[in-house]
Amino acid sequence: MAAGADRAAQLGVQRLDRIADLLTLKADGRYGLHDITQRQHALQAARQAERAGGDAALITACLLHDIGHLVHDLGDRPAEQGVDDRHEAPGHAFLAAWFVPEVIEPVRLHVAAKRYLCATKADYFAKLSKDSVLSLALQGGPMSAAEAAHFAALPQATAAVRLRRFDEAAKVKDLETPTVAHFLPYVAECLKPEAG
What is the band of 4 on the pLDDT scale with cuts at 50, 70, 90? Predict the structure, then answer.
């Protein structure tokens, strides 16, 4: 029993180290058309979720929602080349074995949440940044009424919409945020204990 607990603890540390490495060593690339890095964007989104009283899962999802950009090899701004990098899919796949559904589902759904908000909230499209408008077109545009109804019925739809709103607002140049290390206890809390 003790050996199993030790192995689980080691795996947890390895996973936290991998997340920290991605966010500290590989997230210096520019975030879309903004004067911030991928790391700054992730930290700003997580900071907003924390300040809004989000739970550990929402804060972790906000921190990791664009991890797919860090694990694919399509460069920093594929949308400018007319390519939908579908970063939510590799991000979800990367995180799925390690995290609870309350983290991975909002990550998987955050692009769909943008399409949903554009279809259901009259003022949302006007708030999108230039690169979000560009990627929206590549991602299928606003949802149809049927798509929106299907999305709204998903168990993590509300969390995905919250994440999306934090995501869109997390593009502020020179905004001070806590470090990656500050958010790692939230990440640790959301790791699946049985994952191997």
Answer: low
